[in-house]
Amino acid sequence: MSRLMKTLTLFILIAGLSLTGCFALSENDQKQTVTPSATVSPAELELASAQEATATPAPKKELTLCLGYEPNTLYPYDNPNPAAKSILSAIYEAPITRRSYGYQAGILQKVPSIKDGDASFVSVPIQEGDWVVDADGNLKELIQGVRVYPSGCHERECIVTYKKDLDDLQMEQMNVTFSMVDLQWADGTPITSDDSVYAFDLAIASKDPSQSYILERTAAYEAVDPLSVSWQGVPGFRDNTYMMNFWQPMPYHIWSEFESAELNSTDVATRYPLGWGPFVVDEWFPGESMRLVKNPLYHGADEGLPYLDVLNVLFVNDPNTAIASLLDGECDLLDPTIPLDGQVELLQDLDSSGQAQLLYREQMSVESLYLGINPATYDDGIVSGNDRAEFLSDPRTRQAIAMCLDRQSVVEDVLHGLVSVPDSYIPNEHPLYTPLLDLYAFDPTEGATLLDDIGWKDVDNNESTPRVAYNVTGVPSGSELVMNYITTTAIQRRQSSEILVTSLNRCGISVNIEYLDPEEFYAPAPDGILLGRNFDLAQFAMGNEGLLPQCDWFMSDDIPNAENDWVGANLSGYRNDEFDASCQSAQHSLHGEVDFEKNYQQTLAIYTEDLPAIPLYPYLRVAAARADMCGFDLDPTAQSSLWNVAEFDYGECAE
Predict the structure, then answer these.
(1) How far is CA 53 from CA 128, 294, 331, in A?
(2) Is 156 a residue whose pLDDT tops 90?
(3) What is the spatial distance between Cα 254 and Cα 270, in angstroms, rounded to a whole number?
(4) What span, in angstroms and rounded, lies between the C-alpha atoms of 528 and 486?
(5) Cα(143)–Cα(161) distance, integer angstroms
(6) Predicted structure pTM score
(7) CA 248 from chain center: how many Å?
């Protein structure tokens, strides 16, 4: 199970509610605002050098950032929305940043690694009743029948099944040490490892669902010395993202005056949190704007960072208004929280004419056409005449559908050629991508030939009428190749699905398309069409904030059904034992190990052959900036567009 599984429905709902179909905030999140009246920073948080700054005024370099909506909170453990995460990036500098599909140290001395010895495994004795991570990656109490990897075992062949008389069982336990650089809070107080342990305790108290996966699999998190902490996993937990298991420090010397339950409603945590980053919040006018000022105690100050003195923030939810504000100088930078993908053509013209900069990058999330291989009605056995015919059970049929989908036209006409058609369930630029995959370029002739070979015949030689089944496995002879296609009302999905349906028709695949409101499309199981696995074809995307491929989204034990309370991501109902084994091996392997790349690439190869979902296009992150903006970089895997806000500049730097 991946860390994201417990919030899967939220991720796909977020993607579906975007007006353009791109990964964005839900409508409810966009409407969230902070309601207290405007106030200035509390006096007790006055910067240590405020008097000096007052005594020596200097010309201030200001930049105005326009966000698509207002931050809902700046308390990290109260589900901050993406607008809030942008602001938090300016207040706190990430301990470890994700950039270009890799990890870089921020306020840590280095990224921990097994090779360097700051991450390691120790063999520990295990007895009945202990909590362990079993061979399938699930957190389990060790009782008779639980299957685990014993110490020294990393292959499926040596997994053991626990029995009461197995007294000498030992399992591997992961230990990672994190060491911070010497930093201080914006009020001058040193940051210590106790602040990180305090943050860990707050994460537990907050019951943040986004952290439940790693918290449940953490055996201990302790201070080692004033600048170092140690993380210890539950036995059997081999975490591929162990280098991220550091809790960003929280200001114990300020926040400890409050109960943890009070922090999500206290100004010192929600509106003016004390950080160590390049900026601090100076003013906040709810529903209108914010003002952040330079932190003179920022650790990069000796290098002249940040280049800006003031970061003004406006809340502008309409993309047309935002672009107009960019052109008249009211906005200097349009954050990706503003839905700009519908204005890409205009922004391209402005970029070409030198009036503005268009910035864009592919994201990890891939919009896909999911195929209802095994709908929920099959779970109790397929009953002829009652259940839908097995139109999609043959992988060759799914391959033919892929050949009949004009995905390249979607990329060119809807996404302005700014992305590439993905070959698998990750973007092609991902470092784990391999070119040794089965590819399905748009070829309606070849697709039609394959359908004919399967037994789907064009009896009237008219591509505008549906093909008819003759000796197709699992399909009654004479059945027409007609399927239902569902997606949301998002503009981008309407545009792309129209192209795709037209191209399917050219192959003799008749499609009835239906556009559903997000509430209906994502209605809960078992009655919901999508989440209840009651569809033929469904276009949507599942979000992925991590760097590793989510192969578990297509594993057999991730099929939502009545037995598991409809929890799971495998909405196609796809089953393949070889894929399951490859995915489990991939998740059990770690960066740097011999089989790490091989295992993940094996899952990609099986996926492209079986096609439980056909990848359509990666999501596009779009931003815009003034023509002389410098330092702003949309990274495909960064947690925020402001990940390097200390380096933002404009003017002479662009010459």
Answers:
(1) 63, 10, 26
(2) no
(3) 13
(4) 12
(5) 10
(6) 0.86
(7) 19
Quickly tell me which residue has 């091989």 as its tokens: 598
Measured CA to CA, the distance from residue 346 to residue 358 in angstroms comes to 10
Domain 363-620, CATH 2.10.10.70 — does that match? no
Position of tokens 């500049």?
A: 649
**What does the pLDDT look like over 41-85, one tens digit per residue?**
443 444 444 444 445 566 789 999 999 999 999 999 999 999 999
E strand residue ranges, 68-118: 96-99, 102-105
> What contacts 594, CB < 8 A, 6 or more positions away?
none
Tell me the domain boundaries of the chain. 95-247, 363-620
pLDDT for 543: 76
In order of 4, 398, 575, 644, the CA distances from 580 in angstroms are 18, 19, 8, 39
Other CB atoms within 10 A of residue 190 CB? 12
Instruction: Determine the Cα–Cα distance for residues 504 and 391; give it in Å rounded to an integer.
Output: 15
Check if the beta carbon of residue 488 is closer than 8 Å to that of residue 520.
no
Q: Averaged over 560-575, what is the pLDDT?
A: 96
Token look-up 């690694």 returns: 113
Q: Determine the CATH number of domain 95-247.
A: 3.90.76.10
Cα–Cα distance between 417 and 174 in angstroms, integer?
44
The count of other CB atoms within 10 Å of the CB of residue 48 is 15
Distance, CA of 29 to CA of 583 (rounded, Å)? 34
Q: How many residues does the chain have?
A: 655
CB 287 within 8 A of CB 259: no
Question: Cβ–Cβ contacts within 10 Å for residue 131, how many?
Answer: 16
Q: Which pLDDT score, from 0 to 100, does residue 462 have?
A: 87
Q: Strand ranges (DSSP E) for 497-626?
A: 510-516, 537-540, 613-626
Q: Which residues contact 603 (CB under 8 A, 6 or more apart)?
A: 549, 551, 554, 579, 582, 583, 586
